[in-house]
Amino acid sequence: MWFIAILAMIPLSLWLLKRTPMGGATTGHVMRSIASLPISQNQRIVTVEVGTGEERRWLVLGVTPQSISTLHSMAPQDDAVPPANPAHPPLPFAQLLGKLRQDKGQAGER
User: Fold this and answer.
1) Cα separation, 74 vs 59, whole angstroms
2) pLDDT tens track for 46-85
3) Is the pTM of this model over 0.85?
4) Which of 60, 65, 59, 68 is CA-nearest to residue 40?
5) Angle at the Cα of 72 (from 67 to 73), degrees rounded to 5?
């Protein structure tokens, strides 16, 4: 009878251990999603924040069904202050790409 009771306590103790801080369950979030930009049906660019305190970093990741690649790593940006420049409103992607191509073409002519 004791043997059966001990065998029943093993999964119960593992279940309890998993849900305690000693077993790895924490209340502090070590990772959170900042932004996601779909590129195509199966590809996206994701920004996640990892770490806590002074060790916090933002990682820009390229995500596909086959892999996740780190594209860039940077210091966390202030969430409270939106990046705004009233003198230069943001350009849509197509206009920005056209401007970059035009600038590249002018540089090649020189």
Assistant:
1) 7
2) 999 888 888 888 999 999 999 999 999 988 887 544 444 4
3) no
4) 65
5) 115
